[in-house]
Write a structure and sequence with these properties.
Blueprint: H1 3-31, H2 40-44, E1 74-82, E2 107-119, E3 122-137, E4 150-165, E5 170-191, E6 196-217
Antiparallel strand pairs: 1-2, 2-3, 3-4, 4-5, 5-6
Amino acid sequence: MSSQTHQQTRNVKKSLLLFGCLLASLSLYASGFSILEQSVSGVGRALSGMAASTDDPSALYFNPATAAWVERPTLLVGNHFLTGRVRFHDKGSTIPGHESGDIVRRTEIPNLDYVYPIGDGLTLNLAMSATSGTATNYHLNWAGRYFGIDTSIAVIEVLPSISYRLSDTLAVGAGLMIDYAEMKSRQKLPTAAFGRDTKLQMKGDDVGIGFTLGVVWRPWE
C-alpha cells in the first residue's frame, strides 16, 4: 500500500470517528431533555410495544392508528412524578458565593387520552401530554449566579387524530401535532454603577404544528 493511500485511509477513519462522536453528543443532549412519560401503563413495561398496542388509548402518542379497534368511548387520565437530587459544591471557583441545595424540583407530568368511536372502525381521538422539559433552581448567591439562577423549559403537545380500520387486520391513522413551548430564565448581572448585582429575566413562548401518520397490521390475534 502506498503512503498516499495509507494517508487517505487514515483520514477516512478520522472522519468516521469524528462523525460518530458528534452523533453520540447529539444523542446525549436530546436524551437529557426528552420526556417519555406519555403512558402510565407504557412506563410500567418500559414502553415495549406501544406503537402497536390496540387496547391502550395512550398508544395514540406513538401511533394514531392503534385506536381503530376501540369499540366504546374511552378516557384515560394519568400522572407521573419526576424528581432527582443534584447539588453544587464549590471546589475553588474564582467567583465567591454560596453552595446550592438540591437544584431539581419535583415535577408532575399529566397526560390525557380520549377515543370516541363513530362506527365502522372509524374513531376520533385526542391526546395531550408533555413531550420535553427541564427545570433548575439555584441559590440566589451561588457561585454561578452570573450564568443562571432559575431555568425552566416546557413543551405541551395536543394531538387530535383520526383512525380507520380498513379490515380486521389493517388500520391507518393520521393526526396533527400542536406543540406549545415556554421558556423562563433568570440570572444576575454584575453592575458596578449600583454597587450591587442586578437581575436579568427572560421569557418566551412559541407554537409549532406538525403531523403524524401510522399503520397497524395484525396478521393474527
